[in-house]
Amino acid sequence: MNTQRLNLFFPFSINLSLPERRVFFLIFWGGLLFLSFLLVFYLFQIVKLTEANYFIKAYNQKIEILAKRNSLLENRYNQLVRLDELEKKIKNLNLVEISEVKYLSLPTGQLAQEKGRK
């Protein structure tokens, strides 16, 4: 019967007794488990960071849109305030409301003539 043995190839030779081998393999597998945990944690953090960047871009676009709307509303408000002031000034002039509009009729022909021409 031919049995095969699993050989670990290390760059250095390790001669360990049975209890030392158990400690070595516990440390090896514990370290491997810890490194795999760190890798998963790192990938999780990258995903979270990518999500945060996406939300920041979306909120920046909303901020730009709201800033444009705000400037339009400010302009509209300023126009309304000017119109309101104009209405108050017109009321203070004590003008009379007209009931009928009559237009002047102008005679046909020239109204003005150049100097030097007759």
Oligomeric state of the chains? single chain
Q: Kindly name the structural category.
A: mainly alpha
Q: What do the pLDDT scores average to?
A: 83
Overall, the morphology is rod-shaped
Helix content: 55-70%
H/E element sequence: H
Structure annotation, total helices = 1
Distance linking N and C termini:
141 Å
Query: Describe the biggest sheet?
Result: none
The number of distinct β-strands equals 0
The radius of gyration over CA amounts to 46 Å
Beta fraction: under 5%
Low-confidence stretches: none
What can you see in these coordinates?
The model has no long low-confidence stretch (mean pLDDT 83). This protein is mostly helical and 118 residues long. 64% of the residues lie in helices and 0% in strands. It has one helix at 18-92. It is rod-shaped and about 130 Å long.
Short description:
The chain is mostly helical and 118 residues long. The chain is built from one helix and no strands.
List keywords for this structure.
single chain, 118 residues, mainly alpha, 64% helix, rod-shaped
List the helices and strands and how they pair.
Elements: H1 18-92
